[in-house]
Write a structure and sequence with these properties.
490 residues, mainly alpha, 86% helix
């Protein structure tokens, strides 16, 4: 029994490490493209340009989470259930693609209709509405991309998914560079549109391909058979909509309370501690969510998968956080300009929120995998309100540094909120190894923070990399065992 359990965990680890290796490797260049883009924006457009990117992208994300009907994740759950039935699989894929078109049209109509209101409320300038109207193209293209990515993820074609994003980002960067240089602030909207165009083009190029043309589905059948994932998707989109509205409201608060430059500083720090670090969570989720969905009816397997995922994520993010604290000033200087050194106190605290994000993120996936949309909306809604209140309150008293502390408390509270459902409603548990790893991770990052702020620089330069290497040892053992195994990816 012990050997069987150990073998199961080893197999899970191998699959996760493969996906993590694929996506961290393939997305390394995507990150570099994003870094280069924001560096050029910071140089040629200053923090004003960074702020515009933040406002436009947050607006797109906020509206799309509502209009895209949550298909990106809910469709993965539905497709993965039928992945072994080829005839039924093609029907479901056709349904998902049709719903993606509907979602894209809906998104384009909504952002165009709201354009005058957005321009006036955000910029106090009616002429800005044409920028939001132009972004209707991005809304449509992004919806198509999400539908195709859901198909690729659910059918385990993760290499194709990664390649589409990889080449799309690269092409978007190449087009954006001359736009930034010659058009300056006017290039922001065009750059966003160009990125969505190229990601769609390459996603389709490397995508799942055409399904059986003999499969005939009326729109009535499309609506009827798509109800299962659309219903869950609506719950999920509403939850994401609340979260993104919270983020957008906070940026609008910063814009009114301080300036667009302050929004740019916050957005730069947010990108470092949430977006870039979030690539690790995204990579792991590519394999974790379909697997958890397929086994959602087994209490033992859900408990095993969630506990294992938390431990593995903490082993990955903890050395990342230590090294981030060690190199924080170099990172900011490399990615931005000296103007952005003001975000160092913010990111030094905020990076630690990834400990609690790893725990809450894995438990929250169990809610989606079980198709429990109502509870997911409740947990995400309460979390968004708490986050908004904490961010505003801590910023008023402690500025940007206060937001970093608020992020830690925010994700800690999310652990409690999700834990109420995970432990209370589902009667699930976490292994003792999870709690031990959490404690060690918290102690390690707090010590790293203390060393960087209180100890001489030479001491920090020596001790922190050694601490990070200590965490890398178990990951190295997992990777070594994985080298000779047969690839699980197609």
């Amino acid at each position: 029994m012990i050997q069987k359990k150990s073998s199961s965990r080893s197999t899970i680890s191998k699959g996760i490490i493969k996906v993590m290796g694929l996506f961290t490797g393939m997305q390394a260049f995507i990150i570099l493209c994003s870094i280069i883009k924001m560096k050029l924006v910071a140089l040629w457009l200053s923090s004003q340009g960074v702020g515009l990117f933040g406002i436009y992208n947050s607006t797109i994300e906020t509206i799309s989470t509502f209009t895209n009907l949550g298909l990106r994740q809910s469709a993965v759950r539905d497709i993965s259930v039928h992945s072994k039935d080829s005839s039924r699989l093609e029907v479901v894929i056709n349904i998902v693609r049709r719903w993606s078109v509907v979602a894209g049209i809906l998104g384009a109509i909504v952002i165009s209709g709201l354009a005058p209101f957005l321009a006036q409320s955000v910029f106090n300038d009616w002429t800005r509405c044409w920028g939001f109207i132009a972004l209707s193209l991005t809304m449509f293209f992004n919806a198509l991309v999400m539908g195709e990515q859901a198909v690729l993820q659910a059918t385990s074609k993760l290499k194709a998914l990664a390649k589409g994003s990889f080449w799309g980002s690269f092409a978007g960067l190449l087009v954006s560079v001359p736009l930034f240089y010659y058009l300056r602030e006017d290039s922001v909207v065009l750059s966003i549109i160009a990125y969505s165009v190229f990601v769609l083009m390459f996603t389709l190029m490397f995508g799942y391909g055409r399904t059986n043309e003999k499969i005939a589905l009326s729109w009535g059948e499309t609506i009827k058979q798509g109800k299962s994932f659309v219903k869950l998707g609506i719950y999920m989109s509403f939850a994401s909509f609340i979260t993104n509205v919270s983020h957008l409201l906070f940026m609008l608060f910063l814009n009114q309370e301080a300036s667009t430059q302050e929004v740019g500083l916050f957005q730069a720090g947010y990108a470092l501690v949430i977006r870039y670090a979030g690539l690790i969570f995204t990579a792991v989720g590519m394999e974790f969510f379909p697997r958890l969905s397929a086994n959602s009816n087994s209490e033992h397997r859900v408990r095993l998968f969630v506990s294992h995922e938390i431990v593995l994520l903490l082993l990955v993010v903890t050395p990342m956080m230590i090294l981030f604290l060690w190199a924080r000033k170099w990172i900011v200087g490399l990615l931005y300009t000296p103007e952005f050194y003001a975000i160092i106190p913010f990111i030094s605290w905020a990076i630690m929120c990834n400990i609690f994000k790893a725990v809450s993120w894995c438990m929250a996936f169990s809610i989606i995998a079980k198709g429990d949309g109502k509870y997911y909306v409740i947990t995400e809604g309460v979390d968004a309100i708490i986050g908004l209140v904490l961010n505003i309150l801590f910023y008023k008293y402690w500025g940007l540094e206060g937001i970093g502390i608020a992020y830690i408390l925010w994700f800690l509270s999310y652990c409690v909120i999700v834990g109420i459902v995970y432990f209370g409603k589902y009667k699930l548990r976490l292994s003792s190894e999870v709690y031990k790893t959490i404690v060690v991770s918290i102690v390690s990052t707090l010590l790293a923070y203390w060393v960087m702020n209180e100890m001489p620089m030479w001491f920090s330069l020596v001790v922190l990399p050694m601490g990070a290497m200590f965490y890398l040892r178990p990951l190295k053992r997992l990777w070594s065992r994985n080298k000779k195994s047969k690839s699980l990816l197609t």
